[in-house]
Amino acid sequence: MKFFWKLFFSIILVTEFFVGISGYVLIYSSFKNAIEREIETAYQENDMLYFSLNQRITWSVEMSNITLMWGIPEEGTENYEEILTEAMSIQTTDSAITVSFSDAEGQVICGSRKKGFDAALVKKLGNQERGYEIRKIDDDYLIHCARYVKLLNQEYFIENYRDITEVFDNQEGYIQTFSMIMGLLFLVGGVVIFIISYWLVRPIHLLSQATRRLAEGDDMKPVQVNSRDEIGQLAEDFNRMAGRLSENMEALKDYARRQEMFVGNFDHELKTPLTSIIGYADMLRSKRMTEEQTVLLANQIVQEGKRLQVMSEKLMQLTVLKRRDFKLRRVSAKYFLTSVYDTVFPAMQADGIRFIGEIQDGKLNIEPDLMKTVCINLLDNARKAIDGKNGQVILSGKSIKGGYEISVSDNGCGIPEGELSKITEAFYMVDKARSRGRGGAGLGLAVCTAIMEVHRGKISFESVQDVGTCVRVDLVEVNRDDTDQR
Amino acid sequence: MNRILVVEDEKPILELIRMNLTDAGYACVCAEDGAQAADILESEIFDLILLDIMLPKINGYELMEYIRPMNIPVIFLTAKSEVMDRVRGLKLGAEDYIIKPFEIIELLARIETVLRRYNKTARELSVYDVTVDTFSRVVKKAGKPVSLTAKEYDILLLFLRNKNIALFRDRIYESVWGEMYMGESRTVDLHVQRMRKKLGLESKIVPVYKIGYRLEVDE
After folding, report:
1. Which residues are paired to A357 by β-bridges?
2. Is there a contact between B54 and A268 if contact means CB atoms under 8 Å apart?
3. Is the ipTM of this complex over 0.90?
4. Residues bearing 4-aspartylphosphate (chain B) (predicted)?
5. Which of B9, B14, B16 to mutate to test the interface with A (most CBs of A within 10 A)?
6. Labelling B111: which of A28, A216, A415, B199 has CA 20 to 30 A away?
7. Minimum mean pLDDT among A99-113, A304-318, B68-82: which range?
């Protein structure tokens, strides 16, 4: 069963149950009160009868005593009965009240019982007791009331009746009205509860739909739940979770895409030199060649083999960088950059490039070998970007707020604007022919980026085509001397 | 002489193809990127184009769209070995594809096949005083017909199409018999020897030590 229907039915059931119970209790107690009142009235009537009878009898006895005194013969029990009958007739003449008078065995002495009543009540009662029974005669309800009396040393019961059909009719009327109210409550309440349930369950429904969408991997749209209750909270949490999830998924997809591209590029980069190597080797083994040709072909094979070697080394660096933990050390910026400068200087000089070092002192928190790789890679790129005369490369280092900045700028060919975002991708080369000609594998900047990640630093490129390129490496100041990285 | 345009951005590979195609007797024009290839195609006519896919400026697929109306057969050269890439190339109307790295003999065989499909190969092949009419499959030695078995004829064609190239026994076996060469077998030697004897080419088709045979032709 759906939660909606559970909610709906439980609310309906609870409402109906309690309204029903309380209605029943109300009607029943008012009924009981009414009956009790009627019984009390019946008793009172009985009492009144008794008292008036008693009075009458006393009076009669006195009269008869007087008569006796006057010599009227004693007539025994019959006489009393006569007196009773007389008294009774007085009592009943101008009233609709049925009264009967019976002895201890329930035998009616005078008056008459109402139709349908018998002596059972009287027989049940002992001395000094009074009692009642309620019977339904035809369509009428009657209280039959009996009272023990002792008159003239004889035991009698006075019985009287009271019609309480009205009480029962009222009771029935109440029940009918109540049933109607219950029915109405069921209908109206049903509609209201249906709406309330729907309103309560709707956010859950929305959430469930969203979850399903998410499970199917569709685009995640946030769930719109405006309430501030637990469900609203849940929806908010769900949205946050979904957001994170889709972010992660995007990241994963992106990672997978990059990985795929990497493998594809790697495949291409591997096959290109292999094609040459296999091709030239094939020529060497199957063709007759002059010595000069042989040397030329062999040289090609060596060149291409070297290219593979460079690539494998760089790849190795990349792989190692992604796995290993590196300990960063504090070194003097001046000392470090000067050693870099000295390493690269001969190559620059050989190419006839003016190589300028502008180095401020500072503290660097780096893995020196890795950072040296970055600097040499960048300087190498700068050198390769320059052709012709008047080449100039500047290696500068300066303290900036919260860290240290190393920058390498050249006045070489520059990088087209559209390519700037791609240059750190593995195997990406802006100018393939140029890069190959100078022994590039397209991995240098990928390695630099990976190293900067190890240092939690930032590498940024600025370039204007045909004017030059400036690469900035920002190292953040890390106060703790010995920080574990990655 | 068939004219072939080679479009390939890797200089060493371009040079490799050029050398071998020239040796095989084709006229070869080279282009290093798509744009250059398009420029050349505007002014010259070719029998076949060898086209690399990953090219700077205009890539192979794009260039293919440009070439298609010219009705010049194209063979793709590609390092991409994924099926989808190959299917894409073929759907664009390429005649064939060659996956890098490739062997020279394979390249020549595919070029030959495509040219034959377009009836652009020379009808007659010849070496010394032997001529072969590839249409009627008639082999003549000094003008007189020589009868060869089907296998001998195929082997002869293979040598004629790969002059000065050492043909390895496994290569010969695979291309003539169409099966994998399973090591030590004298079948190839037997057929080669009988064929060259029938044509009197004993001194021209020479054994290459431990490898196979080579048809030597002085250029």
Report:
1. A395
2. yes
3. no
4. 52
5. B16
6. B199
7. A99-113
